[in-house]
Amino acid sequence: MDEAVIILIRGIGSGAVYTLVAMSLNVIYNATGVLNFAQGQLLVVAGVFTYLWYPDSSGTGSLPWIAVLLAVTLVVTLVAALQGWLTLLPMRSGSDQHSWIVTTIAASIVIGAVMIFVIGPRTLALKNPFGFFPLAGTQVPYVYLAISVLAVVVHLALRWFQRRYLVGLALNALSQDLDAARTAGISTLPLQVLSFAIAGAILGLTGYLGGHVIGVAESNALHYVIFGFIVAVVGGLGNNTGALVAGPVFGVLLMLVSFQLGGSAEIPLALAVIVIVLMLRPEGIFGRLHARRV
Amino acid sequence: MTRNSGFRALLGIAVMALIGATTGCGGDTGGATTTGPIKVGVPLALTGPAATVASWARMGVEMSAAEINDAGGINGRKVELIFEDTALDPTKAVTAINRLINQEKVELIVGPMTSDESLATLPTTTKAKIPSINGSGSAITPQVAPYSFAMLMNAEHQAQKMVEVALDKYGATSVATLNYSGTQGKIGGAAFIKTLQSHSMKPTATQEFKFPVTDLTPQLLTLKKSNPQVLLSFNNTGDDTGRLVLGLRQLNWNVPVIGSYATTFATQTKGVAGPDAFANLKSVTWSAFSACDKAQIRPQATDFIKRAQARFDATRLKDASYDYMAVYRDALFILKAGVEATKSTDGPKVADWIETKGAEALKSLPVVHQGYAMSKTNHFLMDTSSLALVDAGEEIAPGIFRRLDCDK
Q1: Mutation for A interface: B178, B237, B250, B267, most A CBs within 10 A
Q2: Could you read off the pLDDT of B267-283 as tens digits, one per residue?
Q3: Could A138 and B215 be called an inter-chain contact, meaning their C-beta atoms sit closer than 8 Å?
Q4: Which H helix or E strand runs over B40?
């Protein structure tokens, strides 16, 4: 029983990281149709800046934590916006281009190369800024709770933003029909760049709060983008509620399989479950079927 | 952009590209020249999760090449190193080896770094009859690798040593095991069980983890539930060792841990788990870099460390494991000795010399490590006499760990 509780809490926390990556993918996908494969790198970039600036980390920084939080979020937001602008530029000449596949992968590689140049290939160890709470005779980092709360807050904030503000409504319009939104006079490029910036902000916050439980290494970026992508697809691509549910479920599933059947079964069985879900509901658990023009 | 079925196909292509699933071409026998510089291919995981460790290997090979060139080269030919990145991916390693052999026309190879990569590339190097020394720690036999030798500790030897220590030093009557999911880790895990069986024991529980790992809680919960007196752990790097220590600490589980060679990567481990990471963790490592006191330190080891510190700046040497650097440094010297003795870079000739005369010849050659024992039946460079149990958290000199058999 104790083990089940520990796995549940830790699984939800680790899955919340995938939720946040998935929601950042969704924000961009809804506004542009692009799946940004550089999201994993941007998450690690956030961890790197946290390492460099956080006062209790092993870096050289000495700023107050709130200043570091804002600075990290701002930097990753700007990097993501710049990357988004570069990604979207070649797509202006047509509505059905797939140049983004190359540009987002290229961006991922370039960001990774810059990180290796700056910090080297090592894994950065970020200190636990929040301490631990006792659970069933063990200690669990508060980071897991913090990252879970962040996932809920981001979900609610995005929902609120997209319903209460004109810009948010316009982003919603893009997600429903990009061409129609253009025809209606919406200036799509700034809005789409904004979606990259919002995704960057989500990853900035995630990298800061979750740095201790995320392996901050260039080589881990691929893991996070793939697992975030899996959560986004299972939850229903573009659906943040789906991501909010699928991430923790996925996280708990991975840990439960490791505990019951051994670590060797973790990835194969977890992926098998995902395949079954997609066979039963190809649009994802919370995904909606879209009418297609023919 | 219209979201249709073609979109999914494109996603598939993109994910495949991200994963780097490019396959290497089959290669013909290399057409190396016998004049000019002697090209040495060095396929290492320069990027990816083992890039830090690869940077140490790179320094070791660079040191040996510089020292050999300063002394006149190999048979009068200067050594030219050709590095290739494998990203710790066996598929990319095959591509790298094909390029080294077919385009660069290398005559010798040092690398790749792991059993998975080595096993994937050996058919190509064997076909090209290139003498090589790889960084495998398992599965290298004269049948699998007729012209290649493994420089790392044999995973089975490590496992045997770890079990012996658990039973003899700790007096354990119950042992649990943990290993990473790479080939070397799996072979180490299987060797734990086999060795325990030879003592009429079986592990209370076994677990495995995929590298890289960020939370070992589920694995450790399984092991803790079985209530062992000692935990044996076959790790891959200092990062996963640090995660292991963090996990044990967070579960409030004070079980003694005996770790494989990778648990000696102390700086990495302490970076993750703090300065007291080795309080309950002891490790198997090469005896050449261990001692009970300063007077016992092997001079070849201290000389090597001094030369490394003189050659490389502090940034490159940060966190470096000198014993790992030294094994890559020795590898090129062993190939050099074989080429000079046979006056050839032909795989069968060089391999035959290493098998029959190498171990004896190395006693008078400037190698750093000890315990070399290659033979017609053993393609691991070093045997169990090269192993020692140490406290990797305590250095009696930079890069030299304190042995645990000092009290005897």
Answers
A1: B250
A2: 888 888 888 999 999 99
A3: no
A4: strand B38-44
